[in-house]
Design a protein that fits this description.
mainly alpha, 50% helix
Length: 135
Amino acid sequence: MEPRGIRNNNPGNINRTTDHWIGESRDQSSDPRFVVFDLPEWGIRALARVLRMRFNVGADTVRKLIAAWAPPSENDTEAYVQAVAAQMGIDPDAPITSIDDVLHSIVPAIIQHENGEQPYAPELLAQGIQAEKHL
């Protein structure tokens, strides 16, 4: 069976809230906790959008971004930080000066950590990330 985030086309496992997302499936009944998207590119777009929003309010390192994404109350945040930073090949406390410079490396690293796999082709990842900037 595929991991939950892959099944839901929500590879970042974004929690359901009162917010509505572009590409969100009309039928959300298959998962009581996480948003279900129609296509993976919409879930990738949402993941990139949340990262941009967090960056814009001061999460300017991998450590800060992951701490906001995966709080210690629900995750082993330090292990998550280390895994993502290692996959990106950067120090977890190195300042990020532009979120656009790291989206193409942090998004697949988060997908890998959330799902235990990162099944998407680079073109599909790029499509979802690019959509974040334009929609």
